[in-house]
Structure formats: structure tokens, C-alpha cells
Fold these 3 entries.
Entry 1:
Amino acid sequence: MSVDDAAGIIERFLTDSSLYPQEWNDFVDTPQQNGVVEGYRKRCYQLDPLVNRPGGQDPGALAELRRIVNELQSR
């Protein structure tokens, strides 16, 4: 997976427009061979319980995901 692919998955999750229902879960649960993407995936994995839950999402975790998208798009 490229950094652009990862940014797209995170952005789609944030805008509730995933390509399929489990796209986000597949991303956070699947280790990546690209070391850069893997580092970001691990960050997302840590944030997942705060953003992928019933009820409200944690605003700080959502902001962190937006920062991750910006970082990935800047690479």
C-alpha cells in the first residue's frame, strides 16, 4: 500500500465514505510492508477504539487522524 492509498482510506473513514463497510477495520488490522505506511497504520490502530465505537467519537483522536492524513499527503 502506498502513502496515498493509506491517506485515502483514512480520509474516507473520516468522511463516512469508505469503499466497503470493513475498509477501515481491514486497514488498521493488516500490517503493511511499506514501513512508512506501517508506522501510520499503527498510530491509527491505537486511535481506533476512540473513533470506531458506538456513540460519539473522541474529538482529539479525530483531529489526530486529520493530522495523519495531512502528513501522508505531504510525503
Entry 2:
Amino acid sequence: MPPIEPLPFRIAVPGRDKLGLDGARSVSWKITGLLHHEVTQLAIEWEGMRTTESVTLAGVIDKVDPMPAEVLEVPIELVAEAWLSGGWWWPRFILRGRRLDVFDGLPGALAGRAVLRIERRHRDIAHAIAAEINR
């Protein structure tokens, strides 16, 4: 069988807002990546940027900090299952691990579960990867 194309994804990470006597600050993240299905492992690579917007009496500051690219390699036997959720409008690719720490280091991963937002046009790739994982 030919290799499956990498699955492009985004990760939703909640922003942080702070309002105080010294001003207002808002921090947001934009994280994108690729999920590679290999014979013995999943390779999840991502990069992103953090945007900080501050408003104080001294002025307005917008700062963008790039996040370095990172890779998490997960042995395929540690992935319990994968499925698509969210229907047509909000498709998500969900991975459930066999241990709580399987996806440690991946932004937004929690308790052995990773939720990757995908575009509708990549649903076929997601279905193919899920079928291979669940096989």
C-alpha cells in the first residue's frame, strides 16, 4: 500500500487575558502542524507563534514570538484508537492513547488524548490514517 499523505492540522489553545491596574494584556497562540503515519509510529510535528498584545498608559505593544518547530514520535502500539468528530462544519481528528503521558509535550493534549482540528478537504487523509491506526 502506498504511504498515506501527512495530515495538516491546527491545535486550538485557549488564550489568556489579563486586566489590571497596570493595563490590559492578551496572549494568543496559533499552532499548525503535520501528522505523519509511519509503519511503527506516528510523528506529530508542529510549529506556531505566540502573539502578545498589551495596552498600558505608556502605549500599545504588539509582539509576535515564533515557537520553534517540534516533533513528537509516538509508537503506534501506544495509540488505542483514532476517529473523526465534529461533522461537516468542525472536523476534528481525535487520538486516544493507551497511557496518560502518550502525547505529553503536544500543546493542548490532555490525559492521553489529542484533538487536532483539520480542514474538510483533508477528511479523506484523516479517514485513511484512522483506519490504519484502528486496524
Entry 3:
Amino acid sequence: MLVIIHFEGVIGDVFKHNLADESVQLNLRHGAIEGLKEIIKNFQVALFSFYSERTLKYVVEHLIKEEIVFDGVYSRVQTHQRSDEFANYN
């Protein structure tokens, strides 16, 4: 069975202190690491996020250090057109 987890607000968030600076700060929710480790034992887990690929890569690299490895990592394709579609998980 596959479980898709949306990163923002569920696992944590990423903040920029200064928009001119490229550095970001990762804040994980309390118990996120332990919870993910438990879910990964029993399910295939994919991570989904609206963050840019660069920011999402930073998040995934941090979680790998915590021994969290996802079966898939997906980010929403950014478009400049308005769309009625909130999120397409295909």
C-alpha cells in the first residue's frame, strides 16, 4: 500500500529569513521523525510538496540523515497559468 504525505504543515515547513539570501531553515513538527520511521516500516511512502525542487532536495537530504528514505518524492509543476486544478498527484 502506498501512502502519500504532503510535506507542508504535516511534516514541517521551510522558512527563509531573508528573501535575498538563499539559506533556509527547516522546522519539523514534533514527533515527525519518529512517526515517519514507523510509517515507512509498514508502507511505501511518497512525499509531495509545493516547494521548489531545490528546497525539496534540501528537505529530503536532511531527512535522509535522520534515516528517512522515501519511495518517491514529487513536487508540483509550477505554471504561470491559472488552473482550476489544486494538485495533480499523477
